[in-house]
Amino acid sequence: xxxxxxxxxxxxxxxxxxxxxxxxxxxxxxxxxxxxxxxxxxxxxxxxxxxxxxxxxxxxxxxxxxxxxxxxxxxxxxxxxxxxxxxxxxxxxxxxxxxxxxxxxxxxxxxxxx
Length: 114
Hints:
The structure is a single chain. The protein has no helices and 11 strands. By secondary structure, the chain is mainly β. It has a single domain (3-113), classed as Sandwich (Immunoglobulin-like). It has a 5-stranded antiparallel β-sheet, with no helix packed on it. β6 (50-54) and β7 (57-60) form a beta hairpin. It is globular, with a radius of gyration of 13 Å. The two termini are 25 Å apart.
């Protein structure tokens, strides 16, 4: 499975008011048509407190839908910021799930540390 390779290893970090992580699309242009759902160490993050930044666009993950898709073009960097949650130091398991137009539901797991 190549999807975990889009995760930028070492990008998980606490920031003011939350934490963030990054993905780099080295595969192909994609259109995301469902919220990007994150679980960290088995705990689901609220999609309305999860913000996706690509280039100069920012959107709440919970607002991504078939009628309001998010384009993640090849060579774009995506930063996901989760507001209101700080992670303790150590290794964390991150489960990612969404729906990509033409592929359907995708999910993968990565590990990183703070």
